[in-house]
Amino acid sequence: MRFHLADEKNPKTEANWIEAPVLRYVRIRQSTNDNTERRAVVELWVKLGSIHEKAQFTLADRSQMTHPVLLGREFIRDIALVDVSRKYIQTEQK
């Protein structure tokens, strides 16, 4: 599967495209209605601070969303803690 990771800082160029094999397809039900959507699942490396792990992602058009990627409980479980009282504590990589 070839897809673009939405990024407001970088224009969509050939270098911004990612290719990854599809592991499987899943059906996702939206919280706003009963409609389901079939999405491809891919596995990618994720670097978050000092954490470098593989994670599975469902692919969807998030170009109109606030966050281009969502990290779920499965990614965080056993490798990180979330302090909901703090925001943006990881410094940006230069």
From TrEMBL:
The keyword Mitochondrion does not apply. It comes from the Bacteria. Coiled coil: none annotated. The keyword Translocase does not apply. Keywords: Lipoprotein. Residues 2-92 form the Retropepsin-like aspartic endopeptidase domain. This is Lipoprotein. It comes from Vibrio cholerae. The lineage of its organism: Bacteria, Pseudomonadati, Pseudomonadota, Gammaproteobacteria, Vibrionales.
